[in-house]
Amino acid sequence: MSNKTIILISFIALKFLLQYILISPEYELQRDEYLHLDQANHLAWGYLSVPPFTSWNSYIIQLLGNSVYWIKFFPALFGALTIVVVWKSIEVLNGSLFALVLGATCVLFSVLLRVNTLYQPNSFDILSWTILYFILIKYIKSENPKWLFIGAAMFALAFLNKYNIVFLLFGLIPALLFSEHRKIFLQPKLYLAIVFGLIIITPNLLWQYANGFPVFHHLKVLSETQLVNVDRVGFLKSQILFFIGSIFVLVASWYALLFYTPFSKYKLFLLSILFTLITFLFFRAKDYYAIGIYPIYISFGSVYLGEILKDGWQKYLQPLAIVLPVLSFIPMYQFVFPNRSPSYIVEHAESYKKLGLLRWEDGKDHLMPQDFADMLGWKELAKKVDGVYSSLPNKQKTLLLCDNYGQAGAINYYTRQNIRAVSFNADYIDWFDLTINYENLIRVKEQSDMNLEFEETSPFFHHSILADSISNQHAREYGTLIYSFTKAKIDIRQRIIEEINEKKIKR
User: Fold this and answer.
1) Beta-sheet strand order (sheet of 398-402)
2) Which contiguous run of DSSP H or E holds residue 229?
3) Within 10 Å of residue 95's Cβ, how many Cβ atoms?
4) pLDDT tens string 459-495
5) CB 295: neighbour CB atoms within 10 A?
6) How far is CA 186 from CA 15, 168, 182, in A?
7) Which residues, 6+ apart, have CB-to-CB distance to 205 below 8 Å?
8) Buried b (16+ CB within 10 A) or exposed e, 334-344
9) What number is the average pLDDT over the span 423-433?
10) Separation between Cα atoms, residue 176 and residue 18, nearest integer Å
11) Which end of the chain is more exposed for a tag (fewer CB within 10 A), N or C?
12) Sign of CA dihedral 375, 376, 377, 380
């Protein structure tokens, strides 16, 4: 085994180690993770929330036991593979051993450590961007059309993971048109590759068509409720912070793409990042949507720095270049990861606020970072719902209706009872069991006017009580109420069907 291989394996091992120790056991899974895990129980070619790739991954996790270890394994794996692709890109660009170590260090000690703590489509999305740029480098260097088909297959898989990959094309296509590589559009095999990619994603497109293209409704809601709060200046600031410890490597890559002769054939990458960022800014995209852009530029920058720091006194700067990304990890460790207790964060709120970490998607500051607050209170919710369920008569005829997908997913993950929670929110609207003649209702409702729920629902049942609530004040679900309604006076199924139809019409 060569020294290079040993070093790469060491980076991969360190990556996995860090991902597992950066989360305090006080925190549970994040609300999105519960939804993605529940998709394994409802495999399909599409979902309201995400394309189908994540559900396939969740099914594998389920086969492996559905433990937290395996849930955290896959985002860590995708992050490790991103390091591998950057390493291989540096090798293709004829980088030195120093360049390889620098590139791997920059990717390891970056925002990817934070992204890879959560089981979400984002980790594979970043990996997909990096692989596609790597494939482009291979094609430019060899002009072998096989890379067009490999690229089409990879793009299709990325599309089936997260539609965000389309933004890569918004940057890459005009960049190609303005470069010497525009001749690629005269390559007949390019269009065969496109057809090949379309065949792979066709089942998902058919699913979208059959369901009225809910992705457009999802984007509309996202734009109206979240993206409207995106500050474009804040978006650009975040781009700097994502790879703050390796910003000098990124700057070196852009300089090298302009002036370093061995990179002359890769100048289109400069235009590509420019067009992509402009597109993100135009659509007021969330800042983390753009993270996948940067790893490939770390490859270019590392190779260039490896060249200019190899001789004379400059070679003594090599250790400093490697240490800088590591030093940047220290403040990241202090604030970015859920490794501090909720009480500690509240006591040091001012430090978190200065970094903008207390601002949620609603544009307001709260007690906890949103992702951290989304990792609390779920076990409490499931335990209390289990207690309510155990006390019901004819419990097998109970509908457990939640306000949001986080509540439903968490209950389904933690519950010890033979019951499946549903919601009119997100994918759960398609997962109601309408074969049961329900007699009871457990209603999990976000903090609201308690009397209003009784006024709306009690008339349809003989008995109704407020059974419990979430008491963890640091949780986003703090104050969530658990109602119990028993002995229905009407056929609940009909009301459910009416509500589902109304929601689907709106979408």
Assistant:
1) 422-423, 398-402, 440-445, 481-488, 461-469
2) none
3) 23
4) 888 888 898 889 998 889 988 999 999 888 888 888 8
5) 27
6) 42, 21, 8
7) none
8) ebbbbbbebee
9) 88
10) 38
11) N
12) positive
Element (H, E) at 466: strand 461-469
Structure tokens belonging to residue 325: 């990304």
Range of lowest pLDDT (5-14, 219-228, 290-299): 219-228
Task: Return the residue matching tokens 């490939």.
Answer: 296
Which are the contacts of 68, defined by CB distance < 8 A and separation ≥ 6?
Answer: 29
Asked if 467 and 420 count as a contact pair (C-beta separation under 8 A), the reply is no
> What is the structure's pLDDT at 149?
96
At residue 238, the pLDDT reads: 80
Q: Where are the beta strands (DSSP E) in 263-417?
A: 398-402
Find out whether 97 and 302 touch, Cβ atoms under 8 Å: no
Q: Which residues of 219-228 are buried (b: 16+ CB within 10 A; e: fewer)?
A: eeeeeeeeee
Residue 20 near residue 113, CB atoms below 8 Å? no
Q: What is the C-alpha separation between 507 and 504, in angstroms, rounded?
A: 5
- d(Cα 193, Cα 210) in Å, to the nearest integer? 26
Q: What is the largest CA-CA distance in the chain?
A: 87
In whole angstroms, give the CA distance from residue 31 to residue 11.
Answer: 30
DSSP state of 421: -
pTM: 0.91
224-247: average pLDDT = 75
Q: What are phi and psi of 167, to 5 degrees?
A: -65, -25
**What sign has the CA pseudo-torsion 373, 379, 383, 386?**
positive
Q: Give the position of tokens 């992702």.
A: 371
Closest CA to 176 of 269, 85, 256: 269
CA–CA gap between residue 132 and residue 89 (Å, rounded): 11
Assigned token pair, 82: 């991103």
Instruction: Kindly give the interhelix angle for 188-210 and 146-159, rounded to the nearest 10 degrees.
Output: 20
Q: E strands along 119-211, which residues?
A: none
489: nearest Cα among 463, 455, 456, 461: 461
Q: Which amino acid appears at position 46 of this protein?
A: G
Token digits for 221? 């809601």
- Residue 137: CA count within 13 A, CB half-sphere: 23
